[in-house]
Design a protein that fits this description.
By secondary structure, the chain is α+β, with helices and mostly antiparallel strands. The chain contains three helices and nine strands, in the order E-H-E-E-E-H-E-H-E-E-E-E.
């Protein structure tokens, strides 16, 4: 088995698409009114599916996430240049949830909230090979 696609339910596909375009250098592979998809690496992809349309496939519309709330979904990225990625996320409009620091499992990581309440983690280095940011 191979993980190839993570799909996030979003309120506004256009807004979320622009956020992910500005926040990352992923190649966009699908762009239709209710769905956008980006290739991450090695065939893996992230999809942004309009909340009500997402519900068509499952028979259940995912709950809306209120301002300042989190969805319970987390996307975790390891980066070679976390400073640059953190800057891009903030410039794109991500909300910082937890600053860059050594985590209990050994990674250095910072946590952000995207416009739809999904958590994005930027990690780099580890306890034995730290990447020190600002």
């Amino acid at each position: 088995m191979k993980h190839i696609l993570t799909i996030l339910a979003v309120d506004d596909v256009a807004r979320s698409r622009e956020f992910y375009r500005a926040a990352f250098d992923f190649k966009q592979t699908v762009d239709v009114p209710v769905y956008a998809e980006f290739e991450i690496e090695e065939g893996r992809r992230i999809g942004l599916y309009q909340r009500e349309s997402f519900g068509v496939n499952t028979g259940i519309i995912p709950n809306e996430i209120g301002e300042g709330e989190l969805s319970g979904a987390e996307i975790y990225f390891h980066c070679e240049n976390p400073d640059a990625q953190v800057e891009k996320l903030l410039k794109a409009g991500a909300t910082l949830l937890s600053p860059w620091q050594l985590r209990a499992w050994g990674d250095f990581a910072a946590y952000f909230r995207d416009p739809d309440g999904h958590t994005i983690v930027i990690a780099g280095g580890n306890r034995n090979n730290p990447i020190v940011t600002r």
